TrEMBL record:
Keywords: DNA-binding, Transcription, Transcription regulation. The lineage of its organism: Bacteria, Pseudomonadati, Pseudomonadota, Alphaproteobacteria, Hyphomicrobiales. It comes from the Bacteria. This is Helix-turn-helix domain-containing protein. PANTHER family: ARAC-FAMILY TRANSCRIPTIONAL REGULATOR, HTH-TYPE TRANSCRIPTIONAL REGULATOR RV1931C. Gene3D superfamilies: 3.40.50.880, Homeodomain-like. GO terms for molecular function: DNA-binding transcription factor activity; sequence-specific DNA binding. PROSITE patterns: HTH_ARAC_FAMILY_1, HTH_ARAC_FAMILY_2.
């Protein structure tokens, strides 16, 4: 068995209000199981909140905190300094602004403490200025708004990313995979395998594995040509290509491609392309304060009026009405916009 240091590694988990319990518990359980496999407390952890008070998760449960951010900042110059400071994000992360926490994270970086983000934790790290020109991962629902707001960050579609001493993951079960990566750097693969056996996990996923299959694959599309064209569409939502441009590289006519799409997806290529762009627009309306006209441009619409018309036809309300529902919704409630979709 190999270990980098005989010293116990300490993790400080900062809970953002409405954090995702699954992402947090998956990370902590990986550390607990690592201790069980190696036979001693190689890892320890504590829970941090903004003011040291309880924090409510998105599922409604509350957790006690061990420290406030102010106390954590004091620990950075003592023997209680953590090895890794982990930001546990969740729903409505853009609503929970804490300048003291941002300053603490920057100080962690300056003092050589690794930082990590679970679920939407990358949003907090980016807001603190730690993800400029850095690879990162964030939950797929939050990626459109994140990319628009933090253009200097290099967000991927993978389940987690490691860039130097910055770790980010998409949340959920991906937290477990990322923690196994960290544990695997300290110990050999036998320890990681032992953790997987205890957790009834059949394999360790690679960081580049996609968070979410393309819609075409989720509904059972198998035709390689349709899948290839859908991938091209997903990569060009801001500047949509003409159907002829999409098909120019595959040697089929527009009529042949339209027949394939109707057989596989029961709609035309143009209609499916529109669906993808409107899905991105819906996420931007929920996640950002971008003006509706900017959302329209970011999703490849030539005008706000055309965007509003297409949005209303698909979702039964205007973009302004959809955003109004979200703004009136108190924190902690399910997204009405998502249920309307």
């Amino acid at each position: 068995m190999r270990i980098v240091s005989a010293e116990q590694r300490l993790f400080a988990f900062y809970l953002v209000p409405e954090f995702t319990m699954l992402a947090f518990s998956s990370a902590v359980e990986a550390l607990r199981l690592a201790n069980a496999v190696v036979g001693y407390e190689a890892y320890s952890w504590r829970v941090v909140s903004s003011d040291g008070a309880k924090v409510r998760a998105s599922c409604g449960l509350t957790l006690e905190a061990d420290n406030s951010v102010a106390v954590e900042r004091q620990h950075l110059t003592s023997r209680l300094r953590p090895s890794v400071s982990v930001i546990c994000g969740g729903k409505h992360v853009e609503r929970h602004v804490d300048r003291a926490a941002d300053a603490w994270l920057r100080e962690c970086r300056n003092r050589g403490v690794a930082v990590a983000g679970l679920c939407t934790g990358a949003h907090i790290l980016a807001r603190a200025g730690l993800l400029d020109e850095r690879k990162c991962a964030i939950h797929w629902e939050n990626q459109p708004g994140f990319v628009e707001r933090f253009g200097a960050a290099n967000a991927s579609s993978g389940i987690y990313e490691v860039d130097g001493n910055i770790y980010t993951c998409a949340g959920g079960a991906a937290s477990f995979d990322m923690m196994l990566h960290i544990i695997g750097r300290d110990f050999d693969e036998s320890v990681v395998s032992g953790i997987c056996e205890l957790a009834l996990v059949d394999r360790v996923r690679d960081p580049g594995e996609r968070q979410r299959l393309p819609f075409a694959q989720r509904v059972g599309v198998r035709d390689p040509i349709v899948l290839k064209l859908v991938e091209k569409m997903e990569k060009s939502l801001t500047e949509p290509m003409q159907v002829e441009e999409l098909t120019s590289s595959i040697g089929l006519s527009r009529r042949q491609v339209e027949r394939l799409f109707r057989n596989e997806l029961h709609c035309s290529p143009a209609r499916y392309y529109l669906k993808l762009r409107l899905e991105r627009a819906q996420l931007l309306l929920v996640q950002s304060t971008m003006p509706v006209v900017e959302v329209a441009i970011a999703c490849g619409f030539v005008s706000a009026s055309h965007f509003s018309k297409c949005y209303r036809e698909t979702f039964g309300c205007s973009p302004q009405e959809a955003r109004g529902r979200i703004m009136r919704m108190p924190a902690g409630r399910p997204d009405e916009c998502a249920s309307a979709a």
